């Protein structure tokens, strides 16, 4: 038990506490006026990563860690428990002082996204796998989340087939949490990601009862030798089959 009364022996509580604290550090850095733009993004990446790695090593010394900002090691491949983190997801948005950036803290157990916390400090809100919130009902006109700068053609095509509105947004974590928060209904990504981009969002989404998979419907598997995990679908479970069929149809046309 920490001095603040948080049970750091609980993985969910630890993930949330680290995500919240990293978010506070990032906000302090952002407000300091010492950096701006890309320099602010670089400083944020390094500062948040240093804190997260130290916090995990102190509180989970026997677990392995995979971080976007840390040199990888093959030693994690033999570990059952691996913390997969993105200290600052949406570096560009953070440097622009937007709200759509996130901190991802996840624990994969035997390759499965088991525990997750996604902090959105600019909102501010943190969603985690231990406190799933009810997903609001879908509106009549569906909303499809896409990248602010490079919307995937597959997502645009599926949105057109569904008659869905496109909702541009930054960070992968911000987009995934927008589905949980009722701000959108489908997050379809085919533009390339890595394990740290979607492990925490997937864990939180699955805990809330949403569908989360690769775009061919296969499960998301983590702690792989190759950390590239290029595609992702997060949506309401009752929409999953239809969306997956539309994606398959697009793939068949491309073939």
Concise description?
Helices cover 39% and strands 22% of the residues. The strands form 2 sheets. Strands 1-2-3-4-5 form a 5-stranded mixed sheet. It has a 5-stranded mixed sheet with strand order 7-6-8-10-9, sandwiched between helices. With 255 residues, it is an alpha/beta fold.
Descriptive labels:
single chain, 255 residues, alpha/beta, Fructose-1,6-Bisphosphatase, Chain A, domain 1, D-Maltodextrin-Binding Protein, domain 2, 2 domains, five-stranded mixed beta sheet, 7 helices, 22% strand, globular
Task: Walk me through this protein's architecture.
GO terms for molecular function: 3'(2'),5'-bisphosphate nucleotidase activity; metal ion binding. Its cofactor is Mg(2+). Keywords: Magnesium, Metal-binding. Helices cover 39% and strands 22% of the residues. By secondary structure, it is an alpha/beta fold. The chain has 2 domains: 11-128, Fructose-1,6-Bisphosphatase, subunit A, domain 1 (Fructose-1,6-Bisphosphatase, Chain A, domain 1, 2-Layer Sandwich), CATH 3.30.540.10; 143-254, D-Maltodextrin-Binding Protein, domain 2 (3-Layer(aba) Sandwich), CATH 3.40.190.80. It has a 5-stranded mixed beta sheet. A 5-stranded mixed beta sheet has the order 7-6-8-10-9, sandwiched between helices. Strand 3 and strand 4 (112-120) form a beta hairpin. The longest helix has 23 residues, at 37-59. The protein starts with 10 loop residues before the first helix and ends with a helix. The model has no long low-confidence stretch (mean pLDDT 93).
């Amino acid at each position: 038990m920490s001095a603040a009364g948080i049970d750091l022996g609980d993985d969910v509580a630890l993930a949330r506490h680290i995500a919240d604290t990293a978010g506070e550090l990032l906000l302090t850095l952002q407000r300091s006026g010492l950096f701006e733009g890309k320099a602010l993004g670089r400083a944020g990446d390094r500062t948040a990563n240093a804190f997260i790695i130290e916090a995990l090593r102190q509180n989970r010394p026997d677990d392995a860690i995979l971080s976007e900002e840390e040199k990888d090691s093959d030693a994690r491949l033999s570990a059952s428990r691996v913390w997969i983190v993105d200290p600052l997801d949406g570096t560009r948005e953070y440097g622009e002082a937007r709200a759509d950036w996130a901190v991802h803290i996840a624990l994969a157990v035997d390759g499965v996204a088991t525990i997750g916390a996604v902090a959105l400090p600019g909102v501010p809100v943190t969603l985690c796998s231990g406190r799933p919130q009810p997903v609001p009902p879908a509106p009549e006109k569906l909303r499809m989340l896409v990248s602010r700068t490079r919307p995937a053609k597959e997502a645009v095509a599926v949105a057109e087939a569904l008659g869905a509105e496109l909702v541009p947004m930054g960070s992968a974590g911000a987009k995934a949490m927008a589905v949980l928060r009722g701000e959108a209904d489908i997050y379809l990504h085919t533009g390339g990601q890595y394990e740290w981009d979607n492990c925490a969002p997937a864990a939180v989404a699955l805990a809330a009862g949403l569908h989360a998979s690769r775009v061919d419907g296969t499960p998301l598997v983590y702690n792989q030798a190759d950390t590239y995990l290029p595609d992702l679908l997060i949506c309401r479970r009752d929409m999953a089959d239809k969306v997956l069929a539309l994606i398959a149809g697009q793939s068949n046309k491309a073939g």
